[in-house]
Amino acid sequence: MSGLAALGEAPDRLWQEWLAWAQAQGRMVPLAADLEAVRTRVWEASEYCAQGAARYPADFAALLDCGDLGRAYAPGDLAARVAATLAAALPGHPDEAALQRALRVVRRREQTRIIWRDIGGLAGLDETLEDLSELADCCIRTALDRLQDWTRAELGTPRDAQGRPQCLLVIGMGKLGARELNLSSDIDLIFAYPAQGQVTDGPRPLDHQQFFVRLAQRLVQALNAQTADGFVFRVDTRLRPFGDSGPLVMSLDALEDYYQSQAREWERYAMIKARVLTGDPAAVAALEDLLRPFVYRRYLDFGSIESLREMKQMIAKELHHKGMDANIKLGPGGIREIEFIGQALQLVRGGRDPALQVRPIRQVLALLGERDLLPASAVPHLDAAYCFLRLVENRIQAYKDKQTHLLPADDPGRLRLARAMGFPDWGAFAAVLEGHRRRVQGQFDQVFSATQTEGPGQDPDFAALWSGCLEECRALEILAANHFSAPQAALVRLTAFREACARKGLSTRGAERLRQLLPLTLRIIAASEAPDLALERVLKVLESVVRRTAYLAMLIERPMALAQLARLTGMSPWIAEQIVRQPLLLDELIDPRRLYALHRRADLEVELEALLAPIDPDDLEQQLERLRQFAHGNILRVAAADLTGGVPLMKVSDYLTEVAEVAVARVLSLAFAHLAERHGRPPGLGAGDTGVLVLGYGKLGGLELGYGSDLDLVLLHGGDQPGADTDGPKPTSAEQFYNRLGQRLIHMITARTPAGILYEVDMRLRPDGNKGMLVRSLAAYADYQATAAWTWEHQALIRARPVAGDPGLAARFAAVRRATICRPRDPARLREDVRAMRQRMRESLDKGERGRFDLKQGRGGIADIEFMVQYSVLRWAAAHPALADWTDNIRQLETLARLDLLPGATAADLTAAYKALRGAYHRSALQDQPKTVADDQLVPERARVRALWRDLMGD
C-alpha cells in the first residue's frame, strides 16, 4: 500500500460515517468544492477532527451551518459563544458537573474550528495562537465567575478593609500569558488574592487563604479533570512559589516577600510572560507593580544570560539523556532557543528600556532589531524560524490533540506532517526545517557564547596569576612579559585586591564570577596602551562593584565593555572615579557604537523622555535618579569621544553644555509641576509656561562647559501683577510661588541621590549676589542692570543667555541684555574698571606656584583673554550692536575681527591661545589634576596673551 493510500484510509472511513449520519438526518450532504478540499486536508492531518466529527456529528454539522469555519472572529465573538454555551447548559443552581460538561463542549467546538482554519490555510499563525489563547482566557474567566459566586454562597465572602469583596487573581504564565498558546498546550497558572483577613457571612470561621485555596482547587478541577467529555485544559500550577510544596494560593504580601527574598533566577525568566487574567483592577495593578521590579532590574542585568545559559544546558542534557534531540521545542535550534534569545536580552535591558517589557516573542525580536541589540540580518531569520516551528508544533499536536513536540519517527507520520506543512514529502520538509534550526542555533550560540570558558580570558598564566599560587619570581616574569613596566607594583596591587575580596566574604556565585573575570581582565589590561595605570584604575572600579555580581557577569559576558573600561580608565583617572562613584556608568561601555555616538539637543531630549516616561509622575525621587543617570552617562560618552580624538575641543563644550541645558529644562518642568499641583499657577501664564527664565552665566552661558563645571545660574520671573495669588487648592502669592520654585529647582539639581548630584550650582552672579532675592522679576532685573550694576556685572552679562524657561521671557531678557551691553561708555573708565577687577581676581584666585602656571587665573591665562574680549565688547557695542549677538568668546573674537576693531592679528592670536589653554584645561580635568601646567608649557601662547594685554589694556 502506498503512503498516500495509507494516509487516506482512516480519514475516508470516518468521513463516510459522518455522511451516513447526515443522510439519515435528511441533510444536504455535498460540500462545495473548496470546502471539500479543505475538509480533505484537515481530515488527513488531524485524526482528532475526523474522529470528533464521527463521534459528535451534530456538533460538526452545526459548525458547517453557522459559517464559523469560514470566517475570523471579531473581538468579543469567542467570549460571546462561550458565555452562550454555558448559559444554555447550566441550571439555576450550582452544578459543577454541568459546568464541566459545558466547558468541554465549547472547547471541542472551538478546537475543531481552529484546527480547520489552521490546516486549511484559512488562518495565519497569529490568528491561531490568539484564538487558542482567547479560548483559554474565556474558559477560565467564565468558569471562575460561576465558581466564585457558588463558593461565596457556600463559605461566605472575603472582603478588604473597606468591606469590598475580594476576587481571585489568576496569573497566566508561559504561552498563555503571552497569548501564544499552542493547539494542545497545558496552561501554567499561579493564584493569588489581595490581602489576608477573615471571611464574612459564612457558616463557620474561615480565613481568606482557606477560601481562595478552595476556590482555586475547584477552578483547576473544572478545567483539568478528565471526564467522559474529555478535558478543557491541562493545568500546571508548579510555577507557583515553592513549587508543589508551596501553598496553592498566596496573598500579595506573601508573594512580594517571596519574590524579593527567595525566588530563583529561572522564576524571573518565567515571569516575563506573566499576565493577570482575572481580578479587581486595583488588585491587578498592585500585582503587576509587585512583579515588575522582580523581573526587570533598573541596571543592565547580564547575570540573566548566565542563568539562562545554565538552564538551557540542563534542558539539553536532559533531552540528550532521554534521546529526544528531535524535540522541536526544546531541542537544538528549537522554539525555546528563540525564546531564550529574545527573553535574555529582555531581562538584560528591559529595566532600562520599558518598551522591551512586552510578552509576545515576535514583538520582542522586532524591538531588539530596531535597537540594534540583535543583528539586523538575524531578526527576520529568527522570526521566520519561529513561525515555521510554531506551525510544525501545531500540526504535530493537531493530529491527536496530544501535547507533544516530537517529530514523527514512522514513515506515514512523517509524510502526514510534511503534507500538512505544504510539502510533497518528508525530504523537502526536513531540508527547510533543518535550515531554520541551523540558523537559530547559530544565533543562539552567538548570544550565549560561554565567554568564561572560551577565548583569551582563560589564559593559564593569568589564571594562575590571579589564583595566587605562583612563586613571586614567576608572577613577576608573567607581568613583565605582558608589558607591565612596574611588575612588582602591579603584583602588590593585584594581591591586595585579591585579599580585599576574600575579606568581603563573597557569595559562592560572586567568587566564581570573579574567578572567571580576573584572568580575562588581566589579559585585556595587558593589551591596553597603559597597563600599569589601567590595572590600578580597573581594580578600583571592580572593588566598587565586587559585591554586585550582576556587574561582574556583565563584564564576563561583554569583554568589549571590559576593553573599553581598560582603555578609558588607562587614559583618564577622572573616568575611573566617575564609574567608581556611579557603577551604572558601566552600562555605557557595552556598545562602542553608542559610547562614541554623541547626541545633540533634540536626541538628548528624546533619550531623557524615554528614561522618564515609565516612572510614576509622583515618584520624584526616581525621576531625579534617572536625570542624574542621563547626565552622567552622556558626560561619560563625551569624555570617551574626547579622549580618543573623536570630537574636537570646541565641540566637547557644545555637547557638555547641551546635556546641562536639557537636564535643567526638565528639572524646571518637574519642579513647576509639583509646586503647581499644590498651589496652582500664577496668573497670566500661557499653556506650558512656568513663568520663570533660567539664565546660564559663565561657562554655561558661554557654551564652554567643561568636565565637573558648576552651573552659574540666575533666575527671573515675568510676574507683573503685585499682590496676585496662585489659583490652586492652597493659594500663595505669585512672588512666593516663584521663590519656592527657585528653591525647589536648585534643590533638585544639587540634592544627592544614590547616583550623586546632578550639578553644583553657583547663584552668586544674581543681582546683589548672595544677599539678593533668589528669583527676581525681569522688570526689577532690568532696572538693576540700568542703575545699580557694577562694570564686572555687565562683563558677566555678556556671557549670559537663557538655558530654560518661557520663550516670551527669553525674548524680553534678550532686549534687556542688548540694551545694557550696547550702552555708551567712557573707554578710559571702562578700561580701569576691567583692569581693577582682573587684578583682584588674580590676587585671590591664582593657584599658580613655583614651577606651575594656573591655566585660568595666571598672567597670560584664560581669564585674561576673557577680560580682553569683554572689555572690547563693552567698549565698542554702542557703535557695533552685532557684538552683543553672541555669548561665547570664539564668536565674539570673530565678530571683533570682522569689524576690524582689534589691530592686526590680535583676534586670531587670542583665538589660538584660547583654544590651546582650554585644551590643556580639559586635559587636566580628565586627568583629575589641578588646572595648572608646568612653567615650560604653552610658553609662546602665554607670552602672546600677556603682550596683547599690555597693548589693549595699557597694563
From TrEMBL:
GO cellular component: cytosol
Needed co-factor(s): Mg(2+)
Region feature (Adenylyl removase): 1-457
Stretches assigned to the PII-uridylyltransferase/Glutamine-synthetase adenylyltransferase domain: 309-448, 835-923
Glutamate-ammonia ligase adenylyltransferase repeated domain boundaries: 41-286, 563-814
Keywords: ATP-binding, Magnesium, Multifunctional enzyme, Nucleotide-binding, Nucleotidyltransferase, Transferase
EC category: transferase
Species lineage: Bacteria, Pseudomonadati, Pseudomonadota, Gammaproteobacteria, Chromatiales
Region entry Adenylyl transferase, spans: 466-955
Function recorded in the entry: Involved in the regulation of glutamine synthetase GlnA, a key enzyme in the process to assimilate ammonia. When cellular nitrogen levels are high, the C-terminal adenylyl transferase (AT) inactivates GlnA by covalent transfer of an adenylyl group from ATP to specific tyrosine residue of GlnA, thus reducing its activity. Conversely, when nitrogen levels are low, the N-terminal adenylyl removase (AR) activates GlnA by removing the adenylyl group by phosphorolysis, increasing its activity.
Family statement: Belongs to the GlnE family.
Name of the protein in question: Bifunctional glutamine synthetase adenylyltransferase/adenylyl-removing enzyme
InterPro entries attached to this UniProt entry: GlnE, GlnE_rpt_dom, NT_sf, PII_UdlTrfase/GS_AdlTrfase
Catalytic reactions of this protein: [glutamine synthetase]-L-tyrosine + ATP = [glutamine synthetase]-O(4)-(5'-adenylyl)-L-tyrosine + diphosphate; [glutamine synthetase]-O(4)-(5'-adenylyl)-L-tyrosine + phosphate = [glutamine synthetase]-L-tyrosine + ADP
Record organism: Candidatus Thiodictyon syntrophicum
GO MF term list: [glutamate-ammonia-ligase] adenylyltransferase activity; [glutamine synthetase]-adenylyl-L-tyrosine phosphorylase activity; ATP binding; magnesium ion binding
EC number(s) reported in the record: 2.7.7.89, 2.7.7.42
One biological process term in Gene Ontology: regulation of glutamine family amino acid metabolic process
